[in-house]
Amino acid sequence: MIGTPNRDRQAERREATRQEILTAAWDVARQNGIAGLTLREVAVRVGMRPPSLYSHFASKNAIYDAMFGQAWQDCMDWMTRAMADAPRAPRARLVALALAFFDYAMTDVERFQLMNVRVLPDFTPSADAYRPAVDCIEAGRAYVSELGITRDEDFDLYTALLAGLLSQQQANDPHGTRWRDLVPKAMDMFADAAGLPAGPEKSGPRRSRPTKAARQNSGRKS
Amino acid sequence: MIGTPNRDRQAERREATRQEILTAAWDVARQNGIAGLTLREVAVRVGMRPPSLYSHFASKNAIYDAMFGQAWQDCMDWMTRAMADAPRAPRARLVALALAFFDYAMTDVERFQLMNVRVLPDFTPSADAYRPAVDCIEAGRAYVSELGITRDEDFDLYTALLAGLLSQQQANDPHGTRWRDLVPKAMDMFADAAGLPAGPEKSGPRRSRPTKAARQNSGRKS
DNA sequence: GTCTATACACCGATAGAC
DNA sequence: GTCTATCGGTGTATAGAC
Prior knowledge:
The structure is a homodimer.
Chain A: H1 3-32, H2 39-46, H3 60-84, H4 90-106, H5 109-116, H6 127-146, H7 152-172, H8 183-194, H9 210-215
Helix pairs in contact in A: 1-2, 3-4, 3-5, 3-6, 4-7, 4-8, 7-8
The first copy, chain A, binds a DNA duplex through loops.
């Protein structure tokens, strides 16, 4: 066949501009708020006229949808990378998992709002975009489960604790670490309640490593 | 003086329509999301043309501002009422305080977003509107403090835990009680970590009372 | 204090030429 | 695939008559 290579190149190029559009959309969202995304602004940033975007996305909500799926997929990658070289000791590992998600969420508030907070009344993720979200949460459940914490109720409490530290940090100290610093203590509290054996560590004034994980990021940041 | 009674009546009437407008604004916010509030819709509901609203509020953000202050003032009233007949035993009291705020927040998601989540990029509460918010949080700190939990760090952890249960409930089970049911367990966990003596209770399968507190509400609900 | 009329800017989306 | 032109709609806010 002589058409196939061309077909591939075209599909490749098409996917590339799709990514360009999404990158621009993230930029706009970070600047104007996730709800302040406009096709005009996106088009300007990629050097197009607004109607041209419709050659790549069926609607504005289709862009949100792609962003939603991408955010959760990136989150999964980020956490997989972070957990690969996380400590093996249960309590330290619990802290590492929490900090991984915490730091991912804090690097981009608007992204986190799209992922977790319902701020777009007339946007509902499609099944395709929702799948990475479920996968990511289930991966988190698996990490916690490996430490011997297997009850659904305990995992719900874990996610709530993490979400709360995040929520407070974003709302009341968006550029500081007031609640992030409480993560180790909070995780110890949780580990005690979930019946995780204390071990020799108890993770006292351990030096956690946000910076290393943050450095090997793909580079999307305000 | 003969003008004074008329002056009073006028001021009274004026304040009444101001309240009418705010009530309509809450209705619209609940229907379209807090960011979906429009002066058109508000005006229609109150039986005015949009420009007439400017006789009562200087701008749309002035309406947000009044809503913000009102929400926190109502929250303070709600919690004062709830804590008046809350149990005296420390752990039960801690649970009661948490549930009071939890239930207030859950009765109106949009109100909670205006109060706590930054979803309106170009709205910042005025000093006047912000004062009730500080007062309400400080009242909460006082309640917790009375139980012997006085360290700032512990109160930060308490607010984070509560915010997290709320956040998860709103995002993942807005009409259920999956995370609300975890409040007693979460509070026990926190009490243990904060060094609150266990006492004879330990708040096992205690029957909490969301309904009673909810019933004596002023009546703003979806 | 409320109205009509209107200014002004912005939005998402479509049609059709190239 | 991208463009120009445009439709039909949204929104906040102001001016001036009554």
